[in-house]
């Protein structure tokens, strides 16, 4: 499902005047263009499906009830209702672990897929979902500019953790 403007407004309206927490995660596939250039667009599409499937799987296994949306190209958004930043960090670590544990094999080759993430929460001072979106997009680019295969949470760039904690 693509993340549309109408849905952004609905989500913002639901959470902006609520005591509930909304954590927004944005990620993209590192060096996705290389997959398309080297293997072709059909393989690029397979990489997209593989990533989406694993992320959905982890959201379901985790019990977070997070919603995954394709934003465009190789960018995705995850909405985590009633999950804090620590929960989001743990979920992202689980996603990263799943990508390592369940690699994609195409044409007798193992494709090592990595992701860069930005993570933020809806804040009282946000005037619209666009404020949240701009911030999480900036954090995603901080991860990419810091070498990729990282997450940035509220401006702090982190590597993935080997020792995972289950989120609540």
TrEMBL record:
GO cellular component term, pick one: plasma membrane
Entry GO MF terms: diguanylate cyclase activity
One annotated GO biological process: cell adhesion involved in single-species biofilm formation
Lineage: Bacteria, Bacillati, Bacillota, Bacilli, Lactobacillales
Protein's recorded name: GGDEF domain-containing protein
Limits of the GGDEF domain: 20-156
Domain of life: Bacteria
NCBIfam families (alphabetical): GGDEF
């Amino acid at each position: 499902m693509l993340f549309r403007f109408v849905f952004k407004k609905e989500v913002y309206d639901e959470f902006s005047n609520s005591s509930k927490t909304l954590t927004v995660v944005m990620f993209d596939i590192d060096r996705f263009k290389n997959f398309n250039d080297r293997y072709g667009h059909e393989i690029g599409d397979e990489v997209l499906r593989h990533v989406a499937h694993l992320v959905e799987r982890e959201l379901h296994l985790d019990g977070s009830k997070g919603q995954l949306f394709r934003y465009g190209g190789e960018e995705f958004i995850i909405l985590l209702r009633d999950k804090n930043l620590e929960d989001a960090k743990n979920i992202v670590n689980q996603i990263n672990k799943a990508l390592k544990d369940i690699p994609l094999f195409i044409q007798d080759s193992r494709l090592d897929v990595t992701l860069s993430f930005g993570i933020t929460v809806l804040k009282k001072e946000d005037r619209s979902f666009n404020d949240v979106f701009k911030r999480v997009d900036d954090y995603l680019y901080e991860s990419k500019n810091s070498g990729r295969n990282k997450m940035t949470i509220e401006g702090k760039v982190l590597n993935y953790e080997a020792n995972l904690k289950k989120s609540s």
